[in-house]
Amino acid sequence: MRIGIDLDNTLADYRRPLERLCHLHGVVAVQADPKLALRDELRARGEEHEWTRLQGELYGPLMREAELFAGAAETIRHWKTAGCEVCVVSHRTKHPFVGEKHDLHAFARQWIGEQPLDVAYLFFEETKEAKLARITSLRCDVFIDDLPEILLHPRFPGGARKILFDPGLSHSARPDLPSARSWAEVAALATLS
Q: Is 159 exposed, middle or buried (0-12, 13-18, 19+ CB in 10 A)?
């Protein structure tokens, strides 16, 4: 059994650095998801360029402040004990589109290396299409992601079980897309029978 997991906002919880960025930019994070609050406010102000720049900082140097979502390590350890192979497949460019040219892959590798995670493979794909191709080539039986557009994409492999990780209830419920608010719920949804 092979289980694939997205990295950003699925394993890595950016709440703390996002709340700090909201404060610095005068954004009241009224939504359950500070990322959406910050993005929506900056876009409303006509500051899309600033939002893009901040993403480079968030997934670069500020990744040091990200925390592993509660329960993720225990769930992965349980899967490994049960004989499952666990891999991480991330859609992440090597460098930000704007701003300083941080090596976003290096920051992610460092972060993963500091976590109590035992994953068989770590892949960074520069486009969504490449990420979908990687999930297909790995023949994942289960894939967990925070983005419905990945899980519902026409190129998502038909045989893989989809789990939407949505701790802030940021997405509308869909009968064709099981969702989990916590890693305990992810574990229950991924349970193999």
A: exposed
Q: Convert the pLDDT of each residue in 153-163 to its tens digit.
A: 999 999 999 99
Average pLDDT estimate for 32-50: 92
130: left (phi over 0), alpha (psi -120 to 50) or beta: alpha
Helix, strand, or coil here: 13?
Answer: strand
Residue among 172, 126, 124, 163 nearest 141 (CA): 163
The whole model's pTM is what? Answer: 0.94
Predicted confidence band of residue 30 (pLDDT cuts 50, 70, 90): low
User: Given 25, 43, 65, which residue is the final one in a domain?
Assistant: 65
Is 90 strand, coil or helix?
A: strand
Of the residues 28, 49, 65, the one at which a domain ends: 65
Query: What is the Cα–Cα distance from 139 to 133, expressed in whole angstroms?
Result: 10
Q: Which amino acid is at 14?
A: Y
In this structure, are strands 121-125 and 142-145 parallel, antiparallel, or unpaired? unpaired
Query: Is the separation of the CB atoms in 185 and 70 below 8 Å?
Result: no
CA atoms within 13 A on the CB side of 133: 7
The 10s digit of each residue's pLDDT in 118-138 is 898 999 999 999 999 999 999
Shared domain for 143 and 104, answered yes or no, is yes
E strands within 14-57? none
Domain ranges, residue 182: 2-12+67-190
